[in-house]
């Protein structure tokens, strides 16, 4: 790879980051093909706890990390996934707090849930997957917003 192409790719990534901020987006993903077996895959995100990755086919290269999430209250574990009442995502997808746009959320903070009650839906590959409560309790925190992408193992809610 030439230095000028590297500089052009860096400028492209910076432009994507500016586009993300200017349009209040949470994530943008782009693939640039340079030729056979030569491409640039870029994903710029504000929501991931993992560093963003730039991938030149076939070898990945790390990039700058996204902005840090807001600090958690001092009376809870720093990582919500480590909380004993954490409900984590069983898959990668898009989380929805209601059955359809404009409908009431399945649960809200303070709601009492029984084991098996639907907490939310995660859409994965055009399939709507209902996420059941793993135990009975009270919803203490909802850690995601409606329509946000989630990763496998990401904390979704705290139920105590």
UniProtKB/TrEMBL annotation:
The keyword Lipid metabolism belongs to this UniProt entry's keyword annotation: yes
Q: Which GO terms are recorded in the biological process aspect for this UniProt protein?
A: fatty acid biosynthetic process
Low complexity: bias regions: 65-82
Q: Where is the Lipoyl-binding domain?
A: 84-160
Q: Which Pfam families does the record associate with it?
A: Biotin_lipoyl
Q: Which domain of life is it from?
A: Bacteria
Assigned keywords, A-Z: Biotin, Fatty acid biosynthesis, Fatty acid metabolism, Lipid biosynthesis, Lipid metabolism
Signal peptide boundaries: none
- Biological pathway: Lipid metabolism; fatty acid biosynthesis
Q: Name one GO molecular function term.
A: acetyl-CoA carboxylase activity
Chain spans, region Disordered: 65-87
Which InterPro entries does the protein's record reference?
Answer: AcCoA_biotinCC, Biotin_BS, Biotin_Carboxyl_Carrier/Decarb, Biotin_lipoyl, Single_hybrid_motif
Please provide one cellular component term from the Gene Ontology annotations of this protein.
acetyl-CoA carboxylase complex
Q: What does this protein do?
A: This protein is a component of the acetyl coenzyme A carboxylase complex; first, biotin carboxylase catalyzes the carboxylation of the carrier protein and then the transcarboxylase transfers the carboxyl group to form malonyl-CoA.
Entries under PANTHER family matching the protein: OXALOACETATE DECARBOXYLASE ALPHA CHAIN
What is the name of the protein in this document?
Biotin carboxyl carrier protein of acetyl-CoA carboxylase
């Amino acid at each position: 790879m030439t230095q000028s192409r590297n500089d052009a790719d860096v400028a492209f990534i910076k432009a994507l980051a500016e586009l993300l901020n200017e349009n209040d987006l949470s994530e943008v993903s782009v693939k640039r093909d340079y030729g056979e077996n030569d491409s640039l895959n870029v994903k710029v995100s504000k929501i991931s706890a993992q560093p963003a990755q730039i991938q030149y086919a076939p070898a990945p290269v790390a990039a700058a990390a996204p902005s840090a999430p807001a600090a958690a209250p001092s009376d809870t574990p720093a990582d919500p996934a480590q909380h004993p009442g954490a409900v984590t995502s069983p898959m990668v997808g898009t989380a929805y707090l209601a059955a359809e746009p404009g409908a009431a959320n399945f649960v809200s903070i303070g709601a009492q849930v029984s084991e098996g009650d639907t907490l939310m839906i995660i859409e994965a590959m055009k399939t709507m997957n209902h996420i059941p409560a793993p135990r009975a309790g009270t919803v203490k925190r909802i850690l995601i917003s409606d329509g946000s992408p989630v990763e496998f193992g990401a904390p979704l809610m705290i139920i105590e």
